[in-house]
Amino acid sequence: MVLHLQKEAEVKPYESMTLNELKEAEDEFDEDDMKAVEKYRQQRLQEWKSLQKRQKYGELREISGDQYIKEVTNAPKNVWVIIHLYRSSIPMCVLVNQHLNLLARKFPETKFVKAIVNSCIQNYHDRCLPTIFVYKNGQIKGRLIGVTECGGANLKLEELEWKLAESGAIKTDLEENPKKDIINMMISSIRSTSVHDDTNSTGSNTDETKCFLSRMF
User: Fold this and answer.
1) Which pLDDT tens digit goes with each residue over 17-50?
2) Strand order through the sheet with 111-116
3) Distances in Å between the alpha carbon of 172 and those of 94, 101, 111, 150, 153?
């Protein structure tokens, strides 16, 4: 549907106009135009509100321990919250914060926050850092504790994205685990070294392999 303006050169489809442009052009509308425009205006307004709701966050925010309950545990209903407990003196924590900052922009519907660990938990061991908790509706839905669980010292952005997606906190467009090839290579290598073992030792090595892999990935 188009506006009934006097000059055809000035005709514009409603879909090409912003809400402000629609308001400014109201004097040029006839009665039919006004009905159509009002309907379209409401549609655009709802789309805008929906977009604002989905893109409510979009950044990695710093909070203190005093804000933990309000910002994390009591976050709005059905909002996923990812919190990173860190120390700035630990390189892995710095790397995780860099990745989370980028992921917060990519997934603005998820709330990303970080907090210096001492402000939240006293006497927390460095070996447990970085620590990432995933919350929804006041419940912990996932956790990554320590360098190994977070993905290792050479953690890539896509690897952290995959781990967080596994908890449900974000909807990734990655089709498979970025570390899949590495895992398969390690399994193949471990199997080849045990090919000459007897049946009993093979069973033992298999159990050790599973344990090792569960710790590494």
Assistant:
1) 666 766 666 666 666 666 776 777 777 777 666 6
2) 60-62, 111-116, 80-86, 131-136, 139-145
3) 23, 16, 15, 17, 22
Give the chain's domain count: 1
The answer to pTM > 0.70 is no
Question: Rounded to an integer, what distance in angstroms lies between the CA atom of residue 194 and that of residue 208?
Answer: 12
Q: At what angle do helices 180-193 and 199-216 cross, to 10 degrees?
A: 160
Quote the pLDDT of residue 41.
Answer: 74
For residue 122, is it within any domain?
yes
Cα–Cα nearest to 216, from 188, 186, 177, 195? 186
Q: How far is CA 78 from CA 54, 90, 122, 135, 169, in A?
A: 12, 32, 29, 10, 10
User: Cβ(140)–Cβ(133) under 8 Å?
Assistant: yes
CATH number (domain holding residue 141): 3.40.30.10
User: Residues 157, 163, 169, 171: is their CA dihedral positive or negative?
Assistant: positive
